[in-house]
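To fix ideas, we quote verbatim a fold written out as tokens:
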Amino acid sequence: MGKGGKGTEAAAAAGEGEENMAAWLVAKNTLKIMPFKLPPLGPHDVRVRMKAVGICGSDVHYLREMRIAHFVVKEPMVIGHECAGVVEEVGAGVTHLAAGDRVAVEPGVSCWRCRHCKGGRYNLCDDMRFFATPPVHGSLAHRIVHPADLCFKLPDGVSLEEGAMCEPLSVGVHACRRAGVGPETAVLVVGAGPIGLVTMLAARAFGAPRIAIVDVDEHRLSVARSLGADAAVKVSTKDEDLAEEVERVQAAMGGGGVDVSLDCAGFSKTMATALEATRPGGRVCLVGMGHNEMTVPLTSAAIREVDVVGIFRYKDTWPLCIEFLRSGKVDVKPLITHRFGFSQREVEEAFEVSARGRDAIKVMFNL
């Protein structure tokens, strides 16, 4: 029996007898399935057999560029961070989980000692260890070892795939909290990619009575309509079209104006759209990170007292995400458009599909 020893003997034997394999990012555009040695099971850890792992845009970006901003992949790294699985073994100090429990996994481990953590904003921790953010390994593997407090038991009726979707949904939930979305908030979502769509679903679950969404891609807009968007407006990438597009957005809101805009793309044009479309006294939340630097009409927003906030990942979101899924307030299943197994060929094909975009929204591995 492994260290900590509360798992069943069968589970422990299975974990020790089968070599743990993972998808390693080894070079630009190169992923290889290779052995992945797990750390010892600590008293407050669990060993989880991964069952569902989604591909995030950041995973694709690391594959293409080997870096995101100042996070640089300098040595081979296991990819993946959107995940759920089944507990195989628990540490001696773990009392709320047992072998066989299905869990959704929050991928960031903070220090719990710095002022951010002590102040409750652990997502801003300077020493955060986050799956598949170099040099920390990710979760696209047969098994992982993770703190038990960051593994959340899934209720009956919520699938493991839905559990893995708690990670992107958490971004939308955190954005809605930061932006103050509620039953009296008319919302504009800028960008109908995976994060824009889950943010739209989160805004509805928070009670937003009217939601409009804009994007450059008609297929993504049609998906948004099918998921319940009240209005979907196609826009361009051209700055000279901004004024006319803002007029169309405001008209689509039925004359009531936009109380909160959530920019899920993060480019100069999309942020300008959010700032110009939002009513005086409203709020804009920057969610996407398309550009590190952008030129936006801040003076115009300032004289209308439009507040601007940002988000970085999320905090304390998994319980609410799971409740949204359990209650049916949020249905993420239509977002999972492609599924793959866990072989070298399938891993490569899955990342190609995700990177290509088109009709792919969320690509999911079933391990």
In short: The chain has a mean pLDDT of 93. The CA atoms of residues 128 and 312 lie 12 Å apart. The first helix runs from residue 9 to 17.
